[in-house]
Amino acid sequence: QRRHLESLRNVPAVTKDGKRISLCANVGNVEDIRKALPMNIDGVGLFRSEFLYMENTHFPTEEEQFEVYKEAAMLCPQELTIRTLDIGGDKDLSYFDFEKEENPFLGWRAIRISLDMKEMFKEQLRAILRASAFGHVRIMFPMIISLEELREAKALVEECKKELSAEGKVYDEKIELGMMMETPASVLLAETFAKEADFFSIGTNDLTQYLLAVDRGNKKIADRYDYFHPAVVSAIGQIIRAGHKEGIKVGMCGEMAGDKRAVPILLELGLDEFSMSAGSIDYVREQIINM
Ligand code: PEP
Ligand code: MG
Questions:
Q1: Per the database record, which ranges form the PEP-utilising enzyme C-terminal domain (predicted)?
Q2: How far is CA 212 from CA 36, 206, 246, in A?
Q3: How would you label 45-84 residue by residue, b for 16+ Cβ within 10 Å and e otherwise?
Q4: Which of 193, 224, 197, 200 is nearest to 211 (CA)?
Q5: Ligand 1 touching residue 205 (CB < 6 A)
Q6: Which value does ipTM take for this structure?
Q7: From the CB of 182, is ligand 1 less than 6 Å away?
Q8: What is the pLDDT of residues 44-83, one digit of tens each?
Q9: Whole-prediction pTM value?
Q10: Ligand 1 centroid from CA 251, angstroms
Q11: For ligand 1, atom 7, which residue shows the shortest CA distance?
């Protein structure tokens, strides 16, 4: 079985009706990319940049981040999708005092922190932009709930571009700016977001939690946490249709994308890209080829 799966690695993920599906890896660091390369990935659909922050003793500087993103960009065969800092919720930093919150998953996390700490956010954006000169880098914003947030984040990227140009530093001027689709608000506003984002990536881990009002980490209700719930599947369909209506690609980087049982449903809904941990790629590829 293992041999058979490995022999399929060179077969491109094309469905029987001829659609080429992009198969990407979810990673937390450069080492993860190295480990995923033998699976013949099309790129990285989710680089969780928070690990770089969590493993440090201080907010990593622009220079420190640039070195990491640059190495990652040079390793990636195709796209490298870097998600901007997604801390808060269940993820803390040892060197930063997060006030205790009643509902951390509904609290100060992800893009909310970045937009409140603009200087810190800009260091990350500048580092990513500079790395974009070394590969096909894309920027992805987490936990977006409003057009204002997306516009503000995009404006900060523009500001960083101008600064870098003035300093004579190079970057990909056409860098794509996309967003995670992981809040109910993002689903309901998907058509609007699709007009202003360059790509979508569906985060089923949070989307399931927020749509079903089921804490993703609570064992007592784990049987109710289900991304095959009709409400979640319906939301995924809405997101994909909205994206395609505006001509943008829609991927998925939540755990559902690495579940081979979900492949038929996600292909039927028109998903363009599956991004998952390296260990699942062989299995999902086999499913896709047979569909
Ligand atoms: C998600 O929410 O589905 C996701 C991919 O992000 P994370 O698991 O890091 O919250
Ligand atoms: Mg998430």
A1: 4-289
A2: 32, 10, 28
A3: bbbbbbebbeeeeebbebeebbbbbbbbbebbeebbbbbb
A4: 224
A5: yes
A6: 0.99
A7: yes
A8: 999 999 999 999 999 999 999 999 999 999 999 899 999 9
A9: 0.97
A10: 13
A11: 205
